[in-house]
Amino acid sequence: LFLMASLILAALMIIAFLCVYLVARFGTAIQAILMNIARLVRPLGPEDYKIGVFIGYADDDYSFVRHVLMTYLEERCQMVTFVHQRDLGQGYKVKQFDQAITNSWRVLLVLSRSFLQDYDMSQIVMMFASHSVTAMNRKRVIALVEKGQVHAIPSDLYGVLDESSIIFFDDFHNQLNYEQRHRIKHCLRPS
């Protein structure tokens, strides 16, 4: 009797250990399988992210970003924004950009001539932005494009942009007009 109880207890401990190991090792896969089985797949919303909007821009465009775009997004739309000149800490820039984009509900890129041709981090930011689009957040990337620069947008980024998420600007020195504000607000809505 004592031997039988010991064997049962040992078997239960081994099974418990294996279950804990499998859950720790394959937790994400198990979660995905359970979500698919239970049909709980839903598009992610702003509440699922730490940052509302990551703003990618060239240093030359900071005045527009700071005085026009951030004012609109933070004050009027009540969104938390990530701006690299304000929010980037010490350390590896590339890793921080990757984490900020991953933790953002929307990625808004100010695609000016300066950003597309002169900014040293533009390729990295555009690559992270294009790779951040998932089935759970398809309309993640929004592009504010300076007129005349649409042909300079890399094809991998252009491929993830929806027609409604490309907003054209004559230049980035003016205030947002009604149509631009309306289109930005429309792009920020959960899809």
Descriptive overview:
With 191 residues, the protein is α/β, with parallel strands linked by helices. The chain has two domains: 2-38; 46-188, Toll/interleukin-1 receptor homology (TIR) domain (Rossmann fold, 3-Layer(aba) Sandwich). It has helices at 2-25, 27-38, 62-76, 84-87, 93-102, 113-117, 122-131, 155-158, 178-188, and strands at residues 51-56, 81-83, 104-111, 141-146, 166-169. The protein has a five-stranded parallel sheet with strand order 2-1-3-4-5, sandwiched between helices. The chain is elongated.
Q: What is this structure's SSE topology?
A:
Layout: H1 2-25, H2 27-38, E1 51-56, H3 62-76, E2 81-83, H4 84-87, H5 93-102, E3 104-111, H6 113-117, H7 122-131, E4 141-146, H8 155-158, E5 166-169, H9 178-188
Based on the model shown, name its key terms.
191 residues; alpha/beta; 2 domains; five-stranded parallel β-sheet; 9 helices; 50% helix; 14% strand; transmembrane; transmembrane helix; Toll_tir_struct_dom_sf; TIR domain-containing protein; TIR_dom
Mean pLDDT: 87
Q: Given the C-alpha coordinates, what overall shape results?
A: elongated
- Gyration radius, rounded: 23 Å
Taking the sheet with the most strands, its summary is: 5 strands, parallel
Q: Low-confidence segments, ≥5 residues, pLDDT <50?
A: none
Structure summary, number of beta strands: 5
CATH class of the largest domain: Alpha Beta
Question: Approximately how much beta-strand content do the residues carry?
Answer: 5-15%
Strand order of the largest sheet: 2-1-3-4-5
Alpha-beta content class: alpha/beta
Identify the CATH architecture of the largest domain.
3-Layer(aba) Sandwich
Termini separation comes to 63 Å
Strand/helix succession: HHEHEHHEHHEHEH
Q: What is the tally of helical segments?
A: 9
Q: Helicity range of the residues?
A: 40-55%
Q: Fill in the CATH topology of the largest domain.
A: Rossmann fold
Name the CATH homologous superfamily of the largest domain: Toll/interleukin-1 receptor homology (TIR) domain
InterPro entries: TIR_dom (IPR000157), Toll_tir_struct_dom_sf (IPR035897)
Keywords: Membrane, Transmembrane, Transmembrane helix
GO biological process, one term: signal transduction
Domain TIR: 49-180
